[in-house]
Amino acid sequence: MATKNYTTEWLVLQVKDxxxxxxxxxxxxxxLADVTMGAIRAAxxxxxYAELVAQPPEPQVLDAVRRxxxxxxxxxxxxxxxxxxxxxxxxxxxxxxxxxxx
Length: 102
Fold this sequence. Notes:
InterPro entries: Band_7/SPFH_dom_sf. With about 100 residues, this protein is an alpha+beta fold. The protein contains 4 helices and 3 strands; from the N terminus they run ββααααβ. It has helices at about 20-25, 30-45, 50-55, 60-70; strands at about 5, 10-15, 75-80. Strands 1-2-3 form a 3-stranded antiparallel beta sheet. Helix 2 crosses helix 4. The radius of gyration is 17 Å and the shape is flat.
């Protein structure tokens, strides 16, 4: 059976095991987003902005995501970081969140 690469603006993937792809996951986009965001967080945690710009961690993220999504029947060929920018972080959940009135 011929396989087809699926391309989005930030990744290229290929279905390699149709049964696992159809049965083991409910929503491909959610799985990819969750796994990829976790890998990005692990790769960038503790790095400075200058370090990220000088050497974006795309290869490390790609390796981590490949290992994780293999069980779901697809293979990643490429991940691209669309941009790196300084942004303000708004944290809605704090350490004292359990003390808030609902």
